[in-house]
Amino acid sequence: MSYDNPTTITHSWAAHDFGAGAATNEIRGPAGKRGRVKDILLTDVTETFTATTTSGNVQVGTVADPDAYAGLDCLTTAAGAVVSAGAIDPATATNFIGDTTISADSLVQVKFNSPTGGTPAGIASVQVIIDWF
Fold first, then answer.
1. What is residue 86's predicted lDDT score, i.e. its pLDDT?
2. Which residues make beta-bridge pairs with 83?
3. What is the 3-state secondary structure (H, E, C) of the chain?
4. Which contacts (CB < 8 Å, 24+ apart) does range 73-76 have?
5. Interatomic CA distance for residues 77 and 81, integer angstroms
6. Are 109 and 29 in contact (CB under 8 A)?
7. Gap between the terminal Cα atoms of the chain
8. Rounded to 5 degrees, what are φ and ψ at 86?
9. Hey, how many other C-beta atoms are within 10 angstroms of the C-beta on 45?
10. Which tens digit of pLDDT belongs to each residue from 6-22?
């Protein structure tokens, strides 16, 4: 593994019900390796997301800085859709892939934040793709 030839790992969580509540997950990369988030994907959407007051989102970061590495806003993603943080123009949305390198042997937190207001809803699988080098 090197920066020019990283090992790409897709970390996956199936069918999280964002409307039912938030969740925090953890990722620890290969021992001694640094990382960089390549993308966050929202897939297998089976229930349309609401965004009455705020929309649900996925943050990849640390305890001190929840979106230090990347963020994906679920907006009002419809059932059957796929959303990629890397495919959104960061100037017009809150989705982004940061350029901050994940330190070797550090704990990465992946937070699923619920939408608020009205009747919160949204069920989808989440994938966080990280290049480890």
1. 85
2. 42
3. CECCECEEEEEEEEEEEHHHCCEEEEEECCCCCCEEEEEEEEEEEEECCCCCCECCEEEEECCCCCCCCEEEECCCCCCCCCEEHHHCCCCCCCCEECCCCECCCCEEEEEEECCECCCCCCEEEEEEEEEEC
4. 74/18, 74/42, 74/49, 74/115, 74/122, 74/124, 75/49, 75/51, 76/48, 76/49, 76/50, 76/51
5. 7
6. no
7. 5
8. -75, -15
9. 20
10. 999 999 999 999 999 99
In tens, the pLDDT along 34-88 reads 999 999 999 999 999 999 999 999 999 999 999 999 999 999 999 999 999 987 7
What's the chain's length in residues? 133
